[in-house]
Design a protein that fits this description.
The protein is of the alpha/beta class. The chain is built from 26 helices and 22 strands. β3 and β4 form a beta hairpin. The protein binds adenosine-5'-diphosphate and magnesium ion (MG).
Length: 700
């Protein structure tokens, strides 16, 4: 057992083999996912301090983090708003004041005139001269000079109870182990590829990042652009690509029904539409139609801005399945959105004689039984619903196609569960996934490398961009007047309430209050209220009333975010927009601007506004382009948030950052292809190193 511990590879070597890491620290580390020595080595510093040189006091400028040395000239206690201990040191080139707000008598006693100190801290401008507040310091007794650090000092992302000194101690030991037995962290990137992409070998890169030499390019390191970092990022991204590529390959071995029925329904449907498809819609529809005729299952992501007309494209796919004698399930993330789809599909497909079933968690008893019987017998061809569609007792006869709207709300495992529904008949249904959070193609091809991609990059003609203004909540009464003015001109408006908490109940309450208050301020308007706590029938009747223009103003929570389609609504007020991500704001705003009138959106924020929030709202004011907004959102919030993968645990990177590292993605894809082709035996260890147990989960 012991012998094994001494030779096994570091990805299975528990950190407790390192001297000084006991169960307490092991527990703390486990909380942030550091369990093995390899985990520790891949836990990289977030920044560095330069303690390698002692700077002369005269050379300091505010903002420097520096090591300095000097002799105490005098010490005094300054009274005032906050009592503080001031210690002035000098080194012949200049002075510096050390300021302590918390200090003990013993500490003060040790800092008398003539004592020599070495300090480390951040230099700031003080009232009289440059200062360091609460520097780290040591007395230098005797004359032998204390050695300065040999490397830049790493600062590690940490967790409660773990001091930087502890991190340095632990990584010292891990690095020593690596030095002695580098073979325990095997190199999996082929030398030929390292050479082609100019990447250092793994051990060198790891060592460098933990203990960079004094002349390392700090700016490059901070930006994550140093070759040593790129090397690790590259390997991680390659591993991801390989893992998703494996999923894709496995899919090729699966069978799907060939959906090559006569085009009669599709022709009729297109002929009945009051508009013709945009070029982008036609392209996407053709790509999907071609996939559906293959006998390996389609897995296609349909990206398109809010209002770009994804639903029509989905309807065409559904008709193709129906024409071919197969069933279709359309899944939406919320009940409200599922109702919206139900309504669109009924309007389009009833004239073709197609009935549509609707399944949500609200249906109970007899109605539900009937529905389930219809699906199991195959009598029901097209069903629209929510997550309820993949409950265990929902059985299909010949499910040929699954359509999922707004995929970022569903995890991969939910997608897979629905796909499994088609297995009864020995095949797997095709899948079409629609999202209105368009991300750049290179990024999408990495984040969703297991999916094919269709993009609708064109809006239907005649759309007028929504004019957006950003106002503080202190202008609320002006905004109320604006609503009055719009609604008395027969326009309709939304008033959207948002809350920080993910609590439907609190959000509903806030919306109720707002509706009551607006009712008093605007007695002449017909005001409706929708939120997530209403019964489905009540929600639907309010939405219908709004759609039929029996209501002027709809007060709503973010439940209306997706899908709701009322072209006469041309004004939207969003309260506390600073709490929402850009993609979500764009979705919300997409509820207006659907008709022939110019639409307006008022973003009414609470002060004070953070710099980041100000920037985000600025983006909304300047742009109506979902692709641009999604890109900004990625930059401001990071890929995990935007792709909605943070919660679900998929697509989490240890080191890579899809946004920061976007420029590498093309090379990564090439490298992954080359490894698959020429070094297939390295695929498994690479995937294991970076994805480990999580791949199974992704393939759930
Ligand atoms: P999204 O992509 O956001 O789901 P929808 O499918 O809801 O967009 O379409 C938005 C609106 O645009 C709907 O009212 C739809 O009927 C209409 N629409 C879709 N395609 C076209 C088109 N080619 N020309 C005109 N209007 C269209
Ligand atoms: Mg939609």
């Amino acid at each position: 057992m012991k012998a094994k511990l001494e030779t096994q590879s570091l990805d299975v070597t528990p950190i407790t083999v390192l001297k000084g890491i006991g169960p307490r620290n092991a527990d703390r580390l486990a909380r942030i996912g550091v369990c093995t020595v390899q985990d520790l080595l891949f836990h990289l510093p977030s920044r560095y301090q330069d303690r390698t040189r002692v700077l002369p006091l005269g050379a300091l400028t505010p903002g420097d983090q520096a090591v300095v040395e000097g002799v105490v000239e005098f010490t005094e206690i300054r009274l005032g708003r906050r009592r503080s201990l001031l210690v002035r040191i000098a080194d012949g080139s200049g002075h510096l004041v050390l300021r302590f707000f918390h200090f003990s008598a013993a500490q003060k006693a040790g800092l008398t005139a003539g004592v020599r100190l070495r300090c480390f801290g951040e230099v700031r401008r003080g009232p009289a001269t440059l200062e360091m507040i609460h520097p780290e310091y040591d007395r230098i007794d005797g004359h032998e000079p204390v050695a300065a650090a040999e490397c830049l000092t790493p600062v590690y992302p940490t967790t409660e109870g773990m001091h930087q000194l502890t991190w340095r101690g632990m990584t010292d030991k891990a690095l020593a182990l690596l030095e002695a037995q580098p073979e325990r962290l095997p190199e999996w990137l082929p030398e030929q590829l390292r050479h082609r992409y100019r990447l250092p070998d793994l051990c060198t890169a790891v060592r460098y990042l933990h203990r960079p030499p004094p002349d390392a390019a700090q700016a490059e390191l901070l930006a994550g652009a140093h070759p040593a970092q790129r090397r690790l990022v590259f390997e991680e991204l390659v591993a991801h690509q390989l893992s998703l590529g494996r999923l894709r390959q496995r899919r090729r071995h699966h069978r799907a029904p060939v959906l090559n029925g006569a085009k009669s329904l599709r022709r009729q449907f297109l002929a009945n539409l009051p508009f013709s498809l945009t070029g982008a819609q036609r392209r996407a529809a053709d790509e999907i139609a071609a996939d559906l005729q293959q006998h390996c299952p389609m897995m296609r992501l349909l990206q398109g801005d809010v209002g770009s007309g994804k639903t029509v494209v989905a309807a065409l796919a559904a008709l193709q399945a129906l024409e071919s004698g197969h069933q279709v399930a359309l899944m939406a993330p919320t009940e409200l959105l599922s109702e919206q789809h139900l309504r669109s599909f009924r309007a389009w497909l009833s004239p073709l004689g197609i009935e549509i079933a609707w399944l949500t968690s609200r249906q109970k008893g007899r109605a539900r039984e009937l529905l389930l019987t219809g699906l199991a017998s195959g009598d029901a061809g097209l069903v629209v619903g929510t997550q309820a569609l993949f409950q265990a007792d929902v059985v299909f006869d010949r499910l040929g196609l699954v359509i999922i709207d707004e995929q970022h709300r569903f995890g991969v495992h939910q997608r897979m569960a629905l796909r499994e529904k088609g297995r009864e008949s020995g095949t797997i249904p095709h899948q079409l996934i629609m999202t209105a959070t368009p991300i750049p193609r290179t990024l999408a091809m990495t984040a969703y490398a297991d999916l094919d991609l269709s993009i609708i990059d064109e809006l239907p003609p005649g759309r007028i961009p929504v004019a957006t203004v950003v106002l503080p909540a202190s202008r609320r009464l002006d905004v109320v007047e604006r609503v009055r003015a719009a609604c008395t001109q027969q326009r309709q408006a939304y008033w959207v309430c948002t809350l920080i908490e993910e609590s439907e109940a609190l959000e509903a309450e806030a919306a109720e209050e707002t509706a009551a208050q607006l009712g008093q301020l605007l007695p002449e308007l017909r005001i409706g209220l929708v939120h997530g706590r209403l019964k489905a029938v009540d929600k639907e009747s309010v939405m219908l009333a709004f759609q039929r223009q029996e209501l002027d103003l709809l007060v709503a929570t973010t439940v209306i975010e997706v899908g709701v389609d009322v072209p006469n609504a041309s004004l939207m007020i969003i309260e506390n927009p600073e709490r929402l991500g850009l993609a979500q704001l764009h979705q919300l705003r997409g509820r207006v601007g659907r008709g022939a009138l110019e639409s307006h959106c008022v973003l009414m924020y609470q002060t004070p506004l953070s710099a980041n929030a100000r920037q985000r709202l600025g983006v909304m004011r300047e742009s109506n382009d979902g692709f641009l907004i999604a890109r900004k959102d990625l930059e401001l919030r990071g890929a995990g948030e935007v792709l909605g993968t943070r919660q679900t645990g998929e697509m989490q990177f240890r080191i890579a950052d899809l946004v920061r590292d976007e420029a590498l993605l093309e090379d990564v894809r090439q490298a992954a292809r080359s490894i698959l082709q020429h070094y297939p035996e390295r695929v498994a260890p690479l995937v294991k190193r970076w994805i480990g147990g999580r791949e199974q989960y992704i393939d759930a």
